[in-house]
Protein 1
Amino acid sequence: MKAAQIILIFLTILVSSCSNPDVKAQLKIVGAFPNLTFQQPVDIQNAGDETNRIFVVEQKGVIKVFQNNPAVNSPKIFLDISNRVLSGGEQGLLGLAFHPNYKDNGFFFIDYTAANPRRTIISRFKVSNTNLDIADKNSESVLLEVAQPFSNHNGGQVSFGPDGYLYVSFGDGGSGGDPDNNGQNLNTLLGSIIRIDINESSGNLNYSIPPDNPFVNQNDKRSEIYAYGLRNTWRFSFDKPTGKLWAADVGQNAWEEIDIIKEGGNYGWRIMEGLHCFNPSTGCNENGLEKPVLEYGHNSTGGYSITGGFVYRGQNAPSFINKYIYADFVSGNIWALQLSDTSASNKLLKNTNLSISTFGIDEGEELYFADYSAGKIYKFEEEGVSSVGSLIIPKFQLFNNYPNPFNPTTQISYRISESSFVLINIFNSLGELVQTLINDYKQPGIYNKVFDGTNLTSGLYTYQFISNNYIETKKMLLLK
């Protein structure tokens, strides 16, 4: 079946529909880090460096880092460039991406708005040589600057694709209705998603152009452009198993849309808004335009500003695997969209009162999202029964210690959902018992215990959690 036929099938499905026979389990939204609150969070990332940390971007120009542990009490400031950032409305520090080899080179990339003149800056920074939780704010290397004629539609996503190239989304320049028709102008980066090679420089550029970009060496066309005709793609994401690039494009006055981005694709703005003619309002030329895979209208059952998410690949909500989870910033609705070669389904998961500004995943592919207004981070858990049988929510959970590496103390946390006897032992690299940290009967809850390695030598240690028939072991590194 052709793509156009697929589109016609699933665009008849109303966004407000709650019927989906394949999903019978109940989705629960829980506070991921109940002790933490952020100021206007706009991005959630992990570094992919096996440290199991979470990075939260605050719009004012601050990035905070903390261990992926629900009991964490306070984040650290990874980077503060608020004095360089023009923040407010749709401007600010908007995106963060870690180099695929971040563990070795320490490079990360950000997207932010600056003033005088107003412009978007794409920069590279480097982590401190002595502290993994602090970036060197003096290490900035500007890759690209794009003038912004208006204060809205800044785009803001930066993300590495499976090909190792950096992808960046730019809005159409702002105002309303794309007055300069930037979305259809291949001589500007506005209204596009670009693709650049940040590992090489070329001429006077601090990056190079991938040789297979669709508009390389074509007159009056920017070689950086990967796809265009986009109004304001606030959030996009790659689905690693399939390689698909999912993008949520914020609409004008009537329609929000989700696109599967293809190389060289023209996604229609400002000719069309979603599946509808915009300029002109009727009889527009749709030839050669890539249509959205889903649209929803501006109303309470839909929303007014789409927030793109991820195809779910985590473990907390098994019946939502392979589904694209996304939301609306204004209505607070959260949906799951699933595509196949022959069909599609869209399900309203939750109607919330949250201002959902962004989604993000951790190193284990678990999904999180941020409430812009309250500054809280949430995650999904599932309970009940799915079409594949009973889902068992773990009764016991051992979290990664923090900090790790540590000197001389670290916090070990765990959760139990029923009253039980708990034993936690510490072992050295030879498997010898170093200390029994906990040997007690506990009531349900989340517990924290500090392990003191003052009298121990540097090296690798393990801590083993035992409760009833459940056993889990994790590693930690003492560095003196």
Note: Residues 1-24, 384-393 have pLDDT under 50 and may be disordered.
Protein 2
Amino acid sequence: MSTLNDSSQKQPGDLERRIGLRSAVLFNMLEMIGVGPFITLPLIIAAAGYKLSVWAWILGAVIAVADGLVWAELGAAFPRAGGSYAFLREIYGPERAGNWLSFLYVWQLSFSAPLSIASGCIGLSSFLGWFWPGINHAPIAALPGLHYSNVAAAAACLLVMLLLYRRLSVVTGTAWVLFVGVIAAMAGVIVSGFAHASTTGGWHMPPSPSMAVGAAVGGLAQATLIATYCYWGYYNITFLGSEVKQPEKTIPRAILLSVVFVAAMYVVMDLSALPSMHDAAVHVKESAILRLQLVAEIARSAFGQWAGYTVAALVMWTAFASVFSLLLGYSRVPFAAAQSGNYFRFLAAVHPRHGIPHRSLVALGLVASIFCFFSLQQVITMLVITRILLQFFLQHVGVMVLRVKRPELERPFRIPLYPLPPLLAMAGFVFILIKRSEAIGGLAVAVGIGVTGSIIYFVRAKRLGQWPFADGREMTSN
């Protein structure tokens, strides 16, 4: 660890350690509190019902903490760029199965990361409907599926990419400015919800129709899956591991603090909105624009039209900040894979002046901007299932495998109550995977991504003489 922190031994092409605890928590929370909670709030209430919706946020937080402890131990032990990519290579062996599983992780990331970034941009453009009523119109009659909102989303993605094309010190300053708007958006929704409740006789739980036990469990599972998506981002700092100061302390603290802070905000936001969301289930069946604008509608009902415009603008700001953090973190993954020779070497470059992985940043930003022109229906479910199967489960098993295979490994942070947290996280993920309706379709997509990625890896590995075709030859890079 002293070698990692010694600037005198910094090699050309390495990234500098400039991120402290406050900035680490900031980057995590920027990714966690994106457009997701504002869009999914009515979806969670509609899926779980009024009484169970709060429990969906709480259960999601419990899963996030249990999973976060796994990230904390691995992130403190292997503070390198790429996060899961570095973890999987170390756990399963860089010249053995770890080479395959880390490649598979980057392969699934080529789908999930651009879709995550694009979903934030599309959410941002959807709230433009408050200011630009014609944004959902098609500018080209021959292409009815192409709307002005798609163009606006792609433009937002490219703008974020340009803002990140700077030194990390400048990026950090920009992140703090964006974070002010994020907190203002959360506060605006919470205050509006309680204010609206006070004008209608005070806070009260809306009457809920009775549900069979099976339906209630299935609804809670679906709601928890969506809530899990909203929590994701507490691990963002591990992708920047090689740029974190004192990573053995900073990474675990940043993960746990960000989950606690965000969970408190989500629960309070849900409670504030419940009295105003009695028709959430009806709105969910309406157009995407009406569903997205529900939180702004609460503000308008409480304080007038100006409040609706203000909250809509703040949610757009929040979505922009989330995309900012997403692209910042994920751009380090292809860079780390390329540096280790397990991805295209072209992406391993570090900008000579800004000190950032600029080619990886631009490549990911361009792909995400293209995804802005596609429909993202059910994208949350696809993202969650794919990452659980091809990333999180591998890490949960891996952290236990590593305890057995390498007990002598220095672990600056050790999971408390081990092995309960990884087992609890896996149990929670299994619950939301199999108890929700239409679970087979989502699982099939994730399996398809895994199978195609594995085929590509083994064809490539045979050509390059990598595991399992090494035959004593040295690992080569493309």
Note: DSSP finds 19 helices and no strands in the chain.
Protein 3
Amino acid sequence: MPTPTTSQTTISFLGTRWRLFGILLSGYLLMLMTLGMYRFWLVTNKRRFYWSHTQIHGEAMEYTGTAVQLLVGFLLALAIFLPLYGFFFYLSTQSPAATVYGYMGAGIFMFFLTGYAAYRGRRFLLSRTLWRGIRFSQEGNAWAYAIRRFLWICLAIVTVGLAYPFMVASLWKYRYNHTWFGDRKCEFTGSWRTIAGPYYFIYFMFVGFIVAGLYFSGAMTSGKAVNVEDFGDNLIVVGMFAGAGFVSFIAYFYLRARITSRMLSSVTIGKAKLVVRVRARALFWQQFSYTILVSIVAVMFLLLLGYIMGDILQPLMEKNETSLNEVLKLGWYNLVIFGLIYLSFMASLTMLAELVFGLGFWRLVARGTIIENETDLRTIRARGEESALVGEGLADALNVGAY
């Protein structure tokens, strides 16, 4: 008896870097003119670009969020942070020991809060993402996720990274088992074993190189302190530590590709299943291209700075004087030019990162994804409403989340 064929469909991304470049360039210029207030409109336009150019079976996704929603959410998040700012000011008036412990505690709390903010931000983003008029949604408890994430990170630190596959699988499972598309719940079928093989292979290879380097340096056999300056006299030691560095470099691309591919391929929506393949070499070439472009931009800005500001800064360089009073003597006009050059350079780096990494990774995942049993998605009915604004604002204030 013949087995029924499985319906498959691919995801296409039709956006171009030139189109995104135009959005980013106009957005950064308007941000400068509005002292940063336009950033909420820029984020909205960027998301609409990504969503509208991503098609599943020829039908584009839709982002329904607005810039005003982002602005209101950010203002609500600032109201939450005001007591924290008051606490920081109070700490500055206390004894040095109390200040240190207070800031450490506040830092740990802020780190814990990033998990809560990321989950709430994901809920906001999914509730404003539609395909075929059907909305995604995120359920679950953001505080439960934040606690889970914080404890897993602590365990990963205590175990020197050995618990990492368990942490990744647990967090992915919580996120996707509480994700819905219309009235159909997603399910994550993966586990720590999904990525354990490649992770532990690289982990123990790295540890092996480090241990071998320490052994051949004599630090493990003689009990003497490690002296980095003596490593150069031992080619074997140099080779071991160079091997560890090489493994670390390759591991970033290899593990990111494997984790992305295998974990996303463990997501199902009813009978529909994702099959994702992201190649490590594609991620490497993204990094290589970004490094080359950043080097070119850095040289161009240095030449521009030297040409425009050389005569202005020469007196300070000759006197070796960089006090605030001397700098202010340059005049507000020259200081504005200097500030604009600096802001332009930082904006160029951010723009390059978005064009190379942001768009590049989105396109790799989209074009590397196949949806099996896609016809089952067409039986899903609409469900869910837009979530609250504060989650996105808090994620934005803490600089967590994506797109």
Note: The first helix runs from residue 17 to 33.
Protein 4
Amino acid sequence: MLIERLHDIGLRAWHLQTSSLASVGLCIGLWIRAKTVDQDERGNAERRALFVGLWPPMLWLIGDSLHQED
């Protein structure tokens, strides 16, 4: 039902798969940035990078479901 609705509004599999790959890059960028911040702020910066690191599999699987819908 949700996948059909996403397909109906014009979202395609490649949109989400590209977003998945971009979020990998964002995660790496945030992780590198976490190594450059002050020790007091480092924990929060690392948690932010790990949170973004959870996005790629979710986005990729939603994109895969949309691909099956096509």
Note: The mean pLDDT is 94.
